[in-house]
């Protein structure tokens, strides 16, 4: 059997190839880890301007791996339904910040900000502004929600739509923020 002329050179080349392989594997694996942990790359906030929305229109944004919808609702859309036909009219069992513990479940009467996932199985909800009594509906199992994201009594979904923590920063702009324990999401 032939012996290599320079065994040190062979070891060096082997180590170099191994190093490049490990580095390349790291670069290939990075996008997969980023998708698994979307919150790690966020700055902790997202500012959204919605001044171009008219009544019945909405805007979707991606926030911490989930879709958030900013929905411009009409006057009285949260009062169009009697509380007796809602599962949780006062939002006692809802996942929402303290500021959303009101009939509109938001800072303003005309804007509703919520996660787009139905509370039944997580399907993306659809918005039908022409149906002001129940403008938010789940296409998977037909759960219906009023303009404040409160679920109707006959729906399969057990809870109201989730509201993310946000702050108004201008007349027609909000800032989505990460939640800290002191912010009181319940």
Architecture blueprint of SSEs:
Layout: H1 7-36, E1 45-49, E2 58-63, E3 66-72, E4 111-115, E5 126-127, E6 136-137, E7 144-145, E8 166-170, E9 173-177
Antiparallel strand pairs: 1-9, 2-3, 3-4, 5-6, 6-7, 8-9
Q: Strand share of the residues?
A: 15-25%
Discrete helix count: 1
Briefly note the CATH topology name of the largest domain. Answer: Rieske Iron-sulfur Protein
Shape: elongated
Helical residue percent band: 10-25%
The spatial strand order of the largest sheet comes to 1-9-8
Tell me the radius of gyration. 25 Å
Distance between the termini: 74 Å
How many strands, which pairing sense, and closed or not: the largest β-sheet? 3 strands, antiparallel
For this entry, give a set of tags.
alpha+beta; single chain; 9 strands; 186 residues; 2 domains; three-stranded antiparallel β-sheet; Rieske Iron-sulfur Protein
What's a concise summary of this model?
The protein is 16% helix and 21% strand.
Written overview of the protein:
- By secondary structure, this protein is an alpha+beta fold.
- It has a three-stranded antiparallel beta sheet, with no helix packed on it. Strands 2-3-4 form a three-stranded antiparallel beta sheet, with no helix packed on it. It has a three-stranded antiparallel beta sheet with strand order 5-6-7, with no helix packed on it.
- A hairpin with a 6-residue loop joins strand 6 (136-137) and strand 7.
- It contains one helix and nine strands; from the N terminus they run H-E-E-E-E-E-E-E-E-E.
- It folds into two domains: 7-36; 42-186, Rieske Iron-sulfur Protein (3-layer Sandwich).
- The termini are far apart.
- The radius of gyration is 25 Å and the shape is elongated.
